[in-house]
Amino acid sequence: MTLRDVLVPALQAVFPDRGLRVSDLPDPVVTFPAVCPEVGDVQIYDDGDEATVFIEWISHNHVNPYDEDMSDNERYRWITDNVIEYLTALFSDQVFLWSIDKGRGGGGWSWPFDGIIPSDTPESADTFVWSHRIG
After folding, report:
1. CA-based angle 120:31:60, to the nearest 5?
2. What does the domain layout of the chain look like in residue ranges?
């Protein structure tokens, strides 16, 4: 069993109406199409011991428990649960996103987002939530 074997069915069950596309390796395992083109698609990769969640024009996030005592099945379940938690917040506009020059000049995110742009956001950054530009 691989991370992909656990992650894909869980994402299909939790997000059936998000336009999820499943790909063969080495492509992203799963892609969710962008709601806001300036943010871009969400692509999720199975990197074996972790998942990498890319927000196309923003940044990426490594999801890994960093616990060598976990079995593979425990690790895959932990990663899957954490990816679902992050995506649930992202798709609910509860993750603040920023980028400079579509991520080429830097980008990042913070969570939870309460509607107030964090003070450490670069002044020249474009700011977003999943569904739209803010600020």
Report:
1. 25
2. 3-134
For 92, the token pair is: 């609910």
**What CA–CA distance (Å, rounded) separates 9 from 115?**
32
Burial class (CB in 10 A: 0-12, 13-18, 19+), 37: exposed
Q: Which helix (H) or strand (E) holds 72?
A: helix 72-91
Which of 22-26, 76-80, 103-107, 130-134 is least confident?
22-26
Model confidence, pTM: 0.94
Selection from 21, 26, 71 nearest residue 52 by Cα = 26
Query: 97, 127 in Cβ contact below 8 A?
Result: yes
